[in-house]
Amino acid sequence: MPFNCSRRAFLGSVAATLVSLDARAEPPVAGTKMAGLTTLEARKGTARLLPDPAHATEIWGFEGKTPGPVLRLSQGEELAVGLVNRLDAPLSIHWHGMRGDNAMDGVAPLTQAEVAPGARFDYRRRALDAGLFCYRPSVFGATPELCGRGLKGLLVVDEPKPLESDADLLLALDDWRLDKNGAVEGDFGSAAAAGGAGRIGTLVAVDGAPAPARRDFSPGARIRLRLANLANARIMFVGFENIQPFVVAVDSQPCDAFEPVRRTIPAAPGARFELMFDLPRAENAVAKLVLRGVDEADGDLAIFTTRGAAAPARPPIAAAPQNPLLPTEIKLQAAKKVDLLIEPPALPGSGWRINGAASKAYGGPPVFQVKRGSPVTLGFVNRAAVPVVMHVHGHCVRLLHDLDDGWEPYWRNGVVVPPGKTKHVAFVADSPGKWAVHDDILEHEAAGLAAWFEVK
């Protein structure tokens, strides 16, 4: 199901994979609840992305599926995953949003060597924080194709006392570029995408089928929705109709519950949101998640219908306690201040520039070095005509206000910097190692919008 929107840098087609887990039951065993070392094979598979009579589309996926298995463990447990590469391309797994443990961050060649075809690499790291995370390859120069062909998945780390709900939904947003025969288009080296809005897909699907997804729940059911944007480049605006949603976590970190402006979530690539809402108490009522258009009509992503006996009433929605492992304050006056001036490719096929020079990405020197525990403020100065989504690995950051020294009341891993604008973030560099800082629009990163910093 295509969406037609004129402002392609932000909106258009979206594919979404909806996984429904009953919060009162154990999560499925196969590929989800982890016990000991879990093996993930990266291999070819197929996905039913187009309706019959079209052929299934060949994809690359973890366990041959896209998205791959939902990995699930409890806070404090060890994440233990063995990556086996059955493809003809080099791989890694980056655990998007997880803090600390630099050697397990999965960024090749910065924190590890790429995993060659036929080889294996075991990841072992402690799940410090509860929340929703993503996993995907991060191999400099190759990531757009690896992810664009389907290598991605979700990781859920459950808190000791889960939020009360009647259903736990995982919504993995994505989009696909397919040719007229239903095959994944192979234009991953497009100079237009690298210097423009990135690779924007043309297909909307839910769980491998045309949108919208349809799910039935009890009238008045309380839903915990965990949504992640796994697309290469698309910035998605997800709206809620006939629902009053409350955001309870952003980029894996709990926050005070708040209702989003205009009941719409701006989800950039790599962003994760957790929301709570109650469905209408009337039977046969309909509520929706929609992709907000800019100049044209919205498109349905998921339709929820209430059926059967009403769910019991619940107390007012509240979020989980905020993460005590994160600092309560950041001493901005003592922070190391670094600005990154970002300029787009000057010519088709050339790379992005950082601070006036052609970027050497992860092969160049660090953009800064600090001692562990130092406060840092990073300024992203976007001189391009398209937005960038700047991601600081291994840490959570506060988005600073444009006009004063305050910050937004939630933590982020990445921030959208609109064309011609500047955004500042602050964080405490509390994890030693070599950490990537790059654009989460993957075609931009592959074209050089990437750098790194070192915490000693």
What secondary-structure arrangement, pairings included, does this model have?
Elements (H helix, E strand, L loop, with lengths): L14 E7 L16 E10 L9 E6 L8 E4 L3 E8 L8 E3 L23 E7 L4 E6 L6 H6 L4 E6 L8 E8 L16 H5 L9 E2 L2 E2 L2 E5 L4 E8 L6 E6 L4 E5 L2 E6 L5 E4 L4 E7 L7 E6 L7 E8 L29 E8 L9 E2 L2 E2 L10 E2 L3 E9 L5 E5 L4 E4 L6 E6 L1 E4 L4 E8 L3 E7 L2 H5 L3 E6 L1
Parallel strand pairs: 2-5, 4-9, 10-14, 13-21, 22-26, 25-33
Antiparallel strand pairs: 1-10, 2-3, 5-7, 6-8, 8-9, 11-12, 14-19, 15-18, 15-20, 16-17, 16-19, 20-21, 22-23, 23-24, 26-31, 27-30, 27-32, 28-29, 28-31, 32-33
Describe this structure in words.
The protein has 456 residues and is mostly beta strands. 4% of the residues lie in helices and 41% in strands. The chain has helices at 143-148, 191-195, 442-446; strands spanning 15-21, 38-47, 57-62, 71-74, 78-85, 94-96, 120-126, 131-136, 153-158, 167-174, 205-206, 209-210, 213-217, 222-229, 236-241, 246-250, 253-258, 264-267, 272-278, 286-291, 299-306, 336-343, 353-354, 357-358, 369-370, 374-382, 388-392, 397-400, 407-412, 414-417, 422-429, 433-439, 450-455. The strands form seven sheets. It has a seven-stranded mixed beta sheet with strand order 24-23-22-26-31-28-29, with no helix packed on it. The chain has a six-stranded mixed beta sheet with strand order 1-10-14-19-16-17, with no helix packed on it. A hairpin with a 6-residue loop joins β28 (397-400) and β29. The relative contact order is 0.15.
